Amino acid sequence: MKIRSKMSIMILTMIIVICAAMSGCRVIIIGRDNANVKEKVFTKDGISITLDDSFIEKHHNGSIAYYTNRDLGVFVGRQNIGELKEFGLSNYSSTYDYAQSIIDSQPEYRDEVTFTEYKGITVYQYEIILEYDDGVEIPCKWTAYVFKHDGAFYLFRFATRSMDYEKNKERIEEMVDSITFDE
Asked: What CATH number does the domain containing 53 carry?
């Protein structure tokens, strides 16, 4: 049972990576300085995040919400803590423990991951080279913010082209600051 669950997490992660590649990580950036861009609050399953009106919501298997525009993909995942007991996680587990369990299930990225904190939120980052059928390779930076709320862990993953990460970092942090959960 333990191997099957780890395999499920690994398969789910690969699906997320593939969908991110299809979401436009490779598209030329328009830029955020467009005066016509307005803030827009997206709400799904009691979770709200403020993005801007250039984002659209799309369906993504394995995510409770997925938003994308031409330069960012935002994937929102949730796992009930009760479902994670076989991984040694419980209500007493930290967001770092949860993040580490995700990384442990992805040995191909384990050495590439860096952990930090942002305003007390566990953050991990890694880079993946997305390879397309036409031979184009695009390095993409993934930044994941881990929350714990109401008996579940929430994972907000932001994907952008690596070369655009620094210019998007502040924008991503603004988005993270806007995340709220219904009580």
From this structure: 3.40.1000.10
